[in-house]
Amino acid sequence: MNPYIQSLHPYPFEKLADLLTDIKPNSEKELIKLTIGEPQHAAPQFVLDCLTQNVNGVSKYPLTKGDPALSESIAQWCKSRFSLNQLDPKTQVLPVTGTREALFAITQTLINSKGDDIIVSPNPFYQIYEGAGILSGAQLHFLNCDADNNYQINYHDVPDSVWAKSKIVFVCSPNNPAGNVTTLDDYTFLLKKALDFNFTLIADECYSEIYFDEDKKPLGLLEACQILGNPTYKNCLVFHSLSKRSNLPGLRSGFVAGDSDILKAFLLYRTYQGCAMPPHHQKASILAWQDEDHVLKNRDLYRRKFKAALEILSPIMSISHPEAAFYLWPKTKMDDEEFCRKLYQQESVLVLPGRYLARTVNDFNPGNNHVRMALVAEEEQCIEAAQRIKNFVINNAI
Q1: What is the pTM of this model?
Q2: Is residue 246 within 8 Å of residue 202, measured between CB atoms?
Q3: Looking at the structure, do residues 230 and 278 belong to the same domain, yes or no?
Q4: Domain region containing 169
Q5: Peptide bond into 174 cis (omega under 30)
Q6: Omega into 39 within 30° of 0, i.e. cis?
């Protein structure tokens, strides 16, 4: 057995289940879950129709590299969305079965198993970054995102001794859970370090299409590369998905794009891993990447929910509107685990303790006294949950 398996941490939702095992929600109120970042908006009907019309594709083995038409549609979407001059669908795009699987697999591709390599990760973080690092034998170097620095990472504090051993630097932009977007200044610094020390800069951009100002789209890493004079995207990869953008988490459809040399090695790894996307999923994905109308409607739904929820919660909590993504990340005066338990008991609303999304570094966990609220449910449910949270805060004088 892989000895590193014993070093894996329980997933946040396992910890949450343990936290609540001895209590029950208020039986007089319907349970509202704001925990898992799983979109509850309706999937596009034209995607569902395409799936059923092409389901006979399961009679054939799909290629790991996917249908060229899918890579072409992805490349065209990237060029349009991020104003790229070029992106070769044959060498710089690789369809994947969701970003979760791909983030794990790219780590196994890039890390030297001898245990000397470092992975730099934001803290809090998406737990796949950590789990993939642990199972590859890498060391994790966490960079805190906390209220004291407005939830931004100060990359300049990282010493060159860490950059020198780094093989992967994970950037989550827009960030989960704070919703911040990585700036061009930060990418300027990170890209220089990536080229100087030869590590791979990996941008997890799965929330890039959930933003609130149509005139202020989140910056992408490949877009930054073009601005900064790295037209081949050397040492850079971006990960995207249809899960959040198109409300298709069960389709397991995404892509990786960027440095062609890295993607060549990654394709070889994936050929042995055996994770090709089913043919009917590929055809449906082509249509999804080619359509923006459903994405705009999706953003409109989130805008309304965030506006309503923040009007209710802002007067009574330390909470702010994120730049992007679909989470609220309020600071709590009550211990975050206690907040979660009592809210569940009194108001039948479920949120996630912030400490479960982070690790303690230098005796400090940046998730402490925070909770994550995923505004993924229908608008009425989100408004009802916000009102219940307001009642809870007032009734408990916190």
Answers
A1: 0.96
A2: no
A3: yes
A4: 59-291
A5: yes
A6: no
d(CA 17, CA 328): 21
Q: What is the CATH number of the domain that holds 145?
A: 3.40.640.10
Report in angstroms the alpha-carbon separations of 55 from 66, 282, 350.
Answer: 16, 11, 37
What is the per-residue pLDDT across 228-280, written as a single tens digit (0 to 9) for each? 999 999 999 999 999 999 999 999 999 999 999 999 999 999 999 888 999 99
CATH of the domain at 10: 3.90.1150.10
Confirm if 212 and 306 have CB atoms less than 8 A apart.
yes
Name residue 302's amino acid: Y
Please tell me the distance from the alpha carbon of residue 171 to that of residue 343, in angstroms, as a whole number: 32
C-alpha distances (whole Å) from 255 to each of 28, 128, 277, 289, 352 are 44, 16, 11, 11, 28
Residues 200 and 232 in one domain: yes
pLDDT (tens digit per residue) in 131-156: 999 999 999 999 999 988 889 999 99
In this structure, the answer to whether residues 287 and 314 fall within a common structural domain is no
Amino acid at 53: Q
Same domain, yes or no, for 85 and 176?
A: yes
